[in-house]
Write a structure and sequence with these properties.
Blueprint: H1 3-20, H2 25-41, H3 46-63, H4 68-80, H5 84-97, H6 102-114, H7 118-131, H8 141-146, H9 149-163
Helix pairs in contact: 1-2, 2-3, 3-4, 4-5, 4-6, 5-6, 6-7
């Protein structure tokens, strides 16, 4: 079964759920996620799918204002559309509600990068690695353990500065 077929089946399933239960926050969130992911598969429909994803995330938040995943999705879209301060506010507010979702830390780090607050971005990434034990990941640990912390920060800082234009939420 092709990727597009699987997405189509998932989309149909969540739309059927919404026909029966129009305020199902999980179905709304799932459709938002599906449309957000679909925009990368079909560049011609990027704007349409982004708007649909944004609408579904907003609907999910209206039904469940504490839906951190819908808020995170909305924050990502706002950042991609250049609404950096709004995205930052969303990520900070969600992180205050729960600090147990790694993507919130990473997305906030990305926002700091876009604002050219490199030290804050590095701190967010490093805190995420430590907090969620990714520093024990074999692919990450050797690089961090071989380089003294200050040097690592400088190296990471220069790497991020050189690549800030290529960062994608």
């Amino acid at each position: 079964m092709s990727h597009a077929t699987q997405w189509s089946l998932a989309q149909s399933a969540f739309e059927r759920i919404l026909e029966q239960h129009p305020k199902d926050p999980y179905a709304l969130l799932s459709l938002g996620n599906l449309y957000y992911a679909a925009k990368f598969e079909n560049k011609e429909k990027d704007a349409k799918y982004t708007k649909l994803a944004q609408d579904f995330f907003w609907k999910a938040l209206q039904i469940d204002p504490k839906n951190i995943f819908a808020a995170n999705g909305l924050g990502i879209i706002e950042a991609e559309q250049g609404n950096i301060q709004l995205a930052k506010d969303i990520f900070i507010k969600v992180r205050e509600a729960t600090d147990s979702v790694p993507s919130l830390w990473v997305n906030l780090g990305h926002v700091y990068l876009l604002e050219k607050q490199y030290d804050s971005a590095i701190k967010m990434y490093q805190n995420c690695l430590q907090r969620f034990h990714y520093d024990n990941d074999a692919s990450v640990r050797p690089r961090h353990r071989r380089v003294p912390h200050r040097s690592c920060s400088r190296l990471t800082h220069s790497w991020l500065c050189a690549r800030v234009d290529s960062i994608r939420m």
